[in-house]
Amino acid sequence: MLPFIQSLSYQRRALLLVGVVLVLRLIYAALFAKNPIGDEAYYWDWSRQLDYGYYSKPPFIAWLYGFVDWIGQGSLFAIRATAAVLGTLSLLILYKLAAALFDERTGWLAVLLGLAAPANAVLSFFLTIDAPLVVCWSTALWMLWRYLSGEGKTGALAVLFLALAVGHLCKQMMMVFPLITGIFLALHHETRPFLRRGALWLTMLGSYLSLIPPLVWNARHDWITFKHTSHHFEVKSKGGNPLLERLEDFFSFIGTQFGVLSPGTAFVLFCLCLTGLPLLRKVDRPVRFLLTFGALPVAAMLLLALRQSMQPNWPAVFYLAGIVLTAAWYNGKVQFAYPPARWRGLFPVTIGVGTALAAYFYLAPIVFAVAGKSGHTADPNRRILGHDLVATEFEKLRRTVPGANDHFLVALGHRDITSHLAFGLPDQPRVYRWESQDRISSQYEMWNDPYEDGLGGKDAIILVPQVTELPRRFARAFGEVEKVGEFKVRFGYDDERAFSVFRGTKLNSWPSGTSPEEP
């Protein structure tokens, strides 16, 4: 087999490897898909009320889920398969970008580094906003380079426009792409003439037109997405020494990035970014392109991590350029003061360690299940266990209520309880959520409540986590409340949670939540 592989071109090797990986990922999804994570069930619920905007994100993820749910008839496999296709497709685009910037061997090494990144395994299993965003960002990088290098021209601009427009609707992060493009073009005299290309800027700035629908939606909903997003940049004190807290957050963020990229790739990538930045205006155009779209924003993220807590996936799109830069260094196309060239011989170790970590993500849940320790702290699947059991136990109690099909459903507690219940019940019904505090904390508070939907006077079946009594303010919304039963579900190896189920008759209002000072 090895001589056969060696006889293939690097492009065919990449196609073969990515194809095999995609098939394996689809088989794994078919055999081991148990539950959606909270965000997946949440976005799936969004897709059942399609709109031009949502509480925390632009609308594309809901539109995508709507399409996937239509094709897959509400199956979890359809969600997993879509994630596998998008995550694996991004590797092929990464190959094309690296090959266009340098050569096919660099593209091949970029595919290997991408596959060895645990983040790609996660990206290809869970269908979150990052999966389509990474495809859009990598496509935009490739098309922009094709245009700047004289290839593609109108066609490249058309695909670039589409990638940017869809990317803006995936996640707010895409909005910085035109800004970084302007920085790249302004850095060197050989690229400054492109600043006067009207077609390029019409493409870049015109892509923002896709944001008009969510902007109109936000204007009608008190700019809720902007308010939610602004909370991500708040500095939150834990009550201790501020300097120590910031350092703790910074090193915690760095540690997660070594897990996201794999230790070897992360180390080389960060070294190349930090040592390459001082040479930004002196290096060749391909390297400058990668440093501008990789090193500059990565450095900005590191500075931001000194200020506040960071989510591990925030720099994800910037690592696309960083991985290509790392592949080019391993291929001898890039040489900075650090890392030393002799370290290129450690490439097999880098790939081996990263592949082992990615394989752990897939295989560890099986091992823990066989050992009877599913949900152990070290089990990558611990976040998705138990939710199907909640739906199963709730359904048993639900069916003991006379006329159960005529009752609407309500869940209290975290939004994940509501979305998981809606996804997991056999009939996948609409489930309303009551927020115990007087605030908007999820998309559920943006939608009509049961009373607004004309369910006044109707009866409800209510799921409540842990507590054995309903909050008084909520209970007073019904003519009478009675307890139907309770159950316990094991979410992990040592994580057992209790739930109570109530029946409320004759809804007379929908109460607001309490303020923190109220009972």
How would you summarize the topology of this molecule?
Layout: H1 2-7, H2 10-32, H3 38-46, H4 60-72, H5 76-101, H6 104-115, H7 118-123, H8 130-148, H9 154-170, H10 177-187, H11 198-206, H12 212-220, H13 224-231, H14 242-261, H15 263-276, H16 285-305, H17 318-330, H18 347-370, H19 387-398, E1 408-412, H20 415-424, E2 431-434, E3 460-465, H21 472-475, E4 478-492, E5 495-507
Parallel strand pairs: 1-2, 1-3
Antiparallel strand pairs: 3-5, 4-5
Helix pairs in contact: 2-5, 2-6, 3-4, 3-20, 4-5, 5-6, 5-8, 5-17, 6-17, 8-9, 9-11, 10-16, 14-15, 15-16, 15-17, 16-17, 19-20
Order of helices and strands: HHHHHHHHHHHHHHHHHHHEHEEHEE
The total domain count is 2
- Give unreliable regions as ranges: 515-519
Task: Please give the number of β-strands.
Answer: 5
Structural class by secondary-structure content: alpha/beta
Strands of the biggest beta sheet: in what spatial order?
Answer: 2-1-3-5-4
Q: How large is the share of residues in beta strands?
A: 5-15%
Determine the mean pLDDT. 91
Write a brief caption for the model.
The chain has 519 residues and is an alpha/beta fold. Helix content is 55%, strand content 8%. Strands 2-1-3-5-4 form a 5-stranded mixed sheet, with helices on one face.
